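Quick one, T. Sequence first:
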Amino acid sequence: MKRTLLFFLVATLGWATTSAQTMTSQPPAAPGSAWHTVEGAYDIAGFRFHDGSTLDKLHLHYLTLGTLHRDARGHADNAVLLLHGTGGTAGTLLAPQFSNELFGPGQPLDITKYYIILPDDVGHGQSSKPSDGLHMRFPAYDYDDMVASQHTMLVEGLHIDHLRLILGTSMGCMQTFVWAEAYQGFADALVPLACLPVEIAGRNRVMRYLMLDAIRRDPEWKQGEYTQQPAAGLRTAGEMLLIMGSAPLQMQKNYPTRVQAQEYADAYLARTVAVTDANDLLYYIDASRNYNPAPRLGTITDPLLWINSADDFINPPELGIAEHLVTQIPHGRFILLPISDATRGHGTHTQAAVWKSYLAEFMAQTAHR
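Structure tokens:
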């Protein structure tokens, strides 16, 4: 059984989401979810990565909701691309605190009006990843590769030439900025949630580096050719992710005693280490290594609504980066959500009830572009 790390950040943790997350994302919806998804896949032959390496076949898995509509000229006009966080899957954003707030009748992404596309990114879920067999020989993909493969899947696989919206959480947030610069005009609207459009440096990169270093220093890692998962390295990485995605207010409220806090930490680590492949983690944590949209923010022509939370440990508001950079985006708006009992640190990006009114307003504003 292939393993991937599902970061619980908006609902327990997640670097992709509630007690912890940017790399801890919501777990996929359980079987029997109220949302009837259609499963799909597209294989890209000879995909060339930015480092020059290629795969004979890059397999991309995705889920869809709703029905695609085309205008009188045959162009797609209701497709919405939703991008998950690091370690997540196509099912991550089917979590009820996200999907139940957005996909129902009269909601901002009502599936009777919109065609929702939820991909498994390269390195995640049922898409091609190191743990499929190549291990550390898998191409060293980055966010540019992820976005390029998403574009190819849409255009060649689903025959979608235009998107009504791109909305991304955490890693998906960063990919939304990459989309904005690489494929201008492809989407009517862009909503990045929980990230900064700058080089991953400072504490953020230090935390990522420590995770990578913990795996590589574990004697059981064996340069990626392990016969059993390097549990010590994975536990250290999990500990970093737990803190990165945590929300102090909620942690104190949910685990008010020493015993409860320790029991929670032990349970979280046991759960995540058991479902994490070390090579997959190395790749998706390091995929951000050359991400840096900052120099080209002024070229973004599409309307962009950018939302962060004030209790996000990964993207701390005291840096002042967002308020400065949003002024460089011609049609950009930045919202910093105040800390409240409803926010979940980095995982607030999946707590749609907190920010969906802004999304609804933005969808109305961009309806006739």
